[in-house]
Amino acid sequence: MEDLDFDEVNAILHRVQNFDPSGVAALDLSDCLRLQLQQLPETTPYREEALIVVTQHLKLLATHEQDKLVRRLGVTEWQLDEIVALIRTLDPSPERRFRTLIQNTLSRCLCEQTKWQMASESESGHCAKTAH
């Protein structure tokens, strides 16, 4: 790991950030939403405005300061509603899908391991279930 320089680490991070699901290797919420928006086709309505919101005005969005957002983006209230609707389609925590998969896999492995231990202990005359 000591042989890696900053540029190499950034290149690796950029590659991982393009994995599916998009946003899984993000640095923070803003980065996560940015990565997901960048994966959308450039022709997606309000994509560029949504990118500006998530990269520059996320706090205003979080505090529901629509008037300030309308002024800063130079859009109408209706257009802002469309921008916010697009942002709401994004997943703020895409790693959740993996968390559930990992938890289910670990549970299944532990269950299988416990069954195997109980069977081998039973064969040896020691049938005490061990907790792991």
Explain what this protein looks like in three dimensions.
The chain is mainly α and 132 residues long. It has 2 domains: 83 residues, no CATH class; 37 residues, no CATH class. The chain contains 7 helices and no strands. It starts with 5 loop residues before the first helix and ends in a 9-residue tail after the last helix. 14% of the residues are buried.
Strand-helix topology:
Blueprint: H1 6-17, H2 29-39, H3 47-56, H4 58-62, H5 66-73, H6 77-88, H7 96-123
DSSP helix count? 7
Order of helices and strands: HHHHHHH
Span between N and C termini? 33 Å
Count of separate structural domains: 2
What is the share of helical residues? 55-70%
Q: Strand tally, please?
A: 0
Low-confidence stretches at least 5 residues in length (pLDDT < 50)?
124-132
Task: Give the CA-based shape.
Answer: extended
In round numbers, the mean pLDDT is: 80
Strand content: under 5%
Report on the biggest sheet: none
Oligomeric state, counting identical vs distinct chains:
single chain
Helix and strand content put the structural class at: mainly alpha
Query: What Rg, in angstroms, do the CA atoms define?
Result: 23 Å
Descriptive labels:
2 domains
Characterize this entry briefly.
The chain is mostly helical and 132 residues long.
